[in-house]
Amino acid sequence: MEIRFDEHGLVPVVIQDWNTGEVLTLAYANEEALARTRETGELHLWSRSRQELWHKGATSGNVQKVRALRLDCDGDALLALVEPAGPACHTGARTCFHNGEADVFAPHEAIPYLTRTMADRAANPTEGSYTNELLSNPQLAGEKVEEEAEEVVRAVREESDERVDEEAADVLYHLLALLQGRGHTIGGAQEVLNGRRR
């Protein structure tokens, strides 16, 4: 299917984090921007305000490596799946969609947020932090994964749906800590699962 550009020769591009699925921004591209994106592997867009080609992150260093481009069913919008080198927003925020209700979180935001928090704790240890204790003690983290896995199995057999969710959350938290302590994220396991879909 061919891209259907609008009357200005532009197509909207939704930019999404390859690893987390978080939407980073919405921008526009023309044919030249898409050609440069394909040539370089880094996201190029069209600035409607400046009326010029825009290499995302060229000034800030927060470039976005493009892993995939997907065209919608009508051919008039693109999805760019990218690996960002830093914040996507010119304000320094991770995503341009940072305004709104501060205490409303979508389910898919939990693991990426927790992963970033654990990486920050690993880089900036806090005395007395349980997370830091897990990150610095792989044996403890492994024991906790085993313990919590047993508890979620027992909850499935004997307890309420709420307890199942709580115990599953405990497994995920401790598994993320175990992985972070090894310098990994859940992304590696997700790649393995994607490979098993084939």
From TrEMBL:
To which pathway does this protein belong? Amino-acid biosynthesis; L-histidine biosynthesis; L-histidine from 5-phospho-alpha-D-ribose 1-diphosphate: step 3/9; Amino-acid biosynthesis; L-histidine biosynthesis; L-histidine from 5-phospho-alpha-D-ribose 1-diphosphate: step 2/9
Principal location listed in the UniProt entry: cytoplasm
* Keywords of the record: Amino-acid biosynthesis, ATP-binding, Cytoplasm, Histidine biosynthesis, Hydrolase, Multifunctional enzyme, Nucleotide-binding
Under the heading Gene3D superfamilies, the entry gives: MazG-like, Phosphoribosyl-AMP cyclohydrolase
Enzyme superclass (EC): hydrolase
Q: Which residues lie within the region annotated Phosphoribosyl-AMP cyclohydrolase?
A: 1-110
What is the protein's given name?
Histidine biosynthesis bifunctional protein HisIE
- Organism lineage string: Bacteria, Bacillati, Actinomycetota, Thermoleophilia, Solirubrobacterales
